[in-house]
Automatic annotation (TrEMBL), chain A:
Belongs to the complex I subunit 3 family. The keyword Glycoprotein does not apply. Keywords: Membrane, Transmembrane, Transmembrane helix, Transport. HAMAP family: NDH1_NuoA (MF_01394). This is NADH dehydrogenase. The keyword Transmembrane applies.
From TrEMBL, chain B:
One of its GO terms (molecular function) is NADH dehydrogenase activity. GO terms for biological process: aerobic respiration. This is NADH dehydrogenase. It is found in: Membrane. GO terms for cellular component: membrane. It comes from the Archaea. The lineage of its organism: Archaea, Methanobacteriati, Methanobacteriota, Stenosarchaea group, Halobacteria. Keywords: Membrane, Transmembrane, Transmembrane helix. Coiled coil: none annotated. The chain crosses the membrane at residues 20-41, 62-80, 100-119, 131-151, 171-189, 209-227, 254-279, 286-307, 327-346. The keyword Acetylation does not apply. It is a multi-pass membrane protein. Signal peptide: none annotated.
Length: 137, 347
């Protein structure tokens, strides 16, 4: 059995070579006539005001992103357990193989429930949209 | 069903020594070029031709029937047309990131196919961590989407990029957890083992494909996969009626082709993952394995196009709530349920 990562590396080379070739072919074929009006960003025909890289925008999912990190690490820890699970059941019995994972997932579910109750997995409405509503303060 | 990976088969075919590293590098490159060509052919068929034909059939119209048999030569015409278009570089784009994003989107999608068993011994590599690897490569595309959204200097692109992240954050975990529930059955992350574990008979002639063994997980995975590839009802990152075209608004010419290409390869990668872990990989009666594999990935492609034509788009707040309150809880329940069932049957 040879090292499978050689083949994966080879596919990485091919996967980069295909788009790069297309870009090279295109650069030989295409015209380049930059004009003032053509080069403005397309925002539905409105004249763009300001740069999008400087606008302040509520990205909404700061808490969701934190939760994602927690659950992503959780999946990393679950994967080895899934691999050995059926062997472990045969060896030490179902209680010993399953209960620790139930406890582990249980703690995470409690965490998710806490985040849920605190509105972390909810799309926050803007103050203007919620003016008069008493759900947010 | 077990066979050597493609590079070794090629080395034996060319009468070269499969133990030498140089030979393996050369045959790996040949094999990778074959896989790349196969997937590019599928994408070329799907993007300019099949997608239009399918959408036209759903909306009772006639599409691309002018050039060649069934309008098939539109593929060549479109390739020439799109590659020879002017590349408009908008003002104020963040240059290296703007150029790299299409490259990232297109090339990472292709990477996942390295470990997919396609039947008839067509499998480039078979590492022990196959399933984890394929999930890792499939989620790399979101980096490209963020780069494209941020670097375009367009508010709609920016919104599209942010929406893409929100969506991928919400649906990645259910996708991977449901994939993990399959590993409980198979007891291995190696793709060839997962396929081999699905070959016994379940009831009578019905094979024990995990879609039949655990239909609940299959449905969950199909839904999460729709979100992962950004098709209706989860296509809010590009929602044309709301934010023009999302992160791809400012891309023209070859960059547009690359982003589109990446999306279609990604759909096929999703199909390949589904085929491998739920539909018995390349297994099937009468026809050779590679044909069955292609039928299965095109089946998933047809399903995404069907959803695209038939299902309305959900709102961004609904999407977050479906993902975190619905899919995540259901996928955790599915994981524990699978563990209990497997535990009881093993004991």
């Amino acid at each position: 059995m040879s090292n499978p990562w050689i083949a994966i590396g080879a596919l990485a080379v091919v996967a980069l070579a295909i788009p790069l070739t297309m870009m090279a072919v295109s650069s030989l074929l295409r015209p380049s006539v930059p004009e003032q009006g053509k080069r403005t960003t397309y925002e539905s025909g409105e004249v763009p005001t300001g740069s999008s890289q400087q606008i302040k925008f509520n990205i909404q999912y700061y808490m969701v992103a934190l939760l994602f990190v927690v659950f992503d690490i959780e999946t990393v820890l679950i994967f080895p357990w899934t691999v050995i699970y059926s062997d472990a059941v045969a060896e030490v019995g179902m209680t010993k193989a399953l209960l620790p994972m139930v406890a582990f997932i249980g703690i995470l579910v409690v965490g998710l429930g806490w985040a849920w109750r605190n509105g972390a997995v909810q799309w926050v409405r803007s103050p203007r949209a919620t003016k008069g509503a008493d759900t947010y303060e | 069903m077990q066979s050597a990976p493609l590079p070794e088969t090629l080395a034996n075919l060319l009468r070269l020594d499969p133990n030498s590293t140089v030979v393996m590098i050369v045959t790996s490159l040949i094999g990778a070029a074959l896989i790349g060509t196969l997937m590019m052919t599928n994408t070329a068929l799907a993007g300019p031709w099949a997608k239009r034909k399918i959408t036209a059939a759903f909306t009772d119209r006639i599409a691309v029937d002018r050039i060649g048999p069934y309008g098939l030569f539109i593929i060549v015409a479109d390739a020439v047309r799109l590659l020879s278009k002017e590349l408009i570089v908008p003002e104020g784009v963040d240059r290296p990131a703007w150029d790299l994003a299409p490259l990232v989107i297109a090339s990472t999608a292709l990477l996942g196919f390295a470990v997919i068993p396609m039947g008839n011994g067509i499998q480039l590599a078979d590492p022990e961590v196959g399933l984890a690897y394929v999930f890792a490569t499939a989620s790399m595309a979101s980096v490209g989407l963020v780069m494209a959204g941020y670097a375009s200097n367009n508010k709609y692109s920016f919104l599209g990029g942010l929406r893409a992240v929100a969506q991928n954050l919400a649906y990645e975990i259910p996708l991977i957890l449901t994939g993990a529930s399959v590993v409980i059955f198979a007891g291995s992350l190696q793709m060839s083992e997962i396929v081999a574990a699905q070959q016994q008979s379940l009831i009578g002639p019905l094979p024990s494909w995990y879609a039949f063994v655990n239909p609940f997980a299959f449905v969950l995975f199909m839904i999460a996969n729709l979100a992962e590839v950004g098709r209706n009802p989860f296509d809010i990152p590009e929602a044309p009626t709301e934010i023009v075209a999302g992160y791809q608004t400012e891309y023209s010419s070859v960059y547009f082709v690359l982003i589109y290409l990446g999306e279609f390869i990604h759909i096929f990668l999703g199909g390949a993952i589904i085929a491998t872990i739920f539909l018995g990989g390349p297994a099937g009666p009468v026809l050779p394995g590679i044909v069955w594999f292609l039928i299965k990935i095109w089946g998933v492609f047809l399903f995404t196009q069907w959803a695209r034509s038939a299902v309305p788009r959900v709102r961004i707040d609904q999407l977050i709530e479906i993902g975190w309150k619905g899919m995540l809880v259901l996928s955790l329940a599915n994981l524990l349920l699978t563990a209990v069932i497997v535990g009881v049957t093993v004991q």
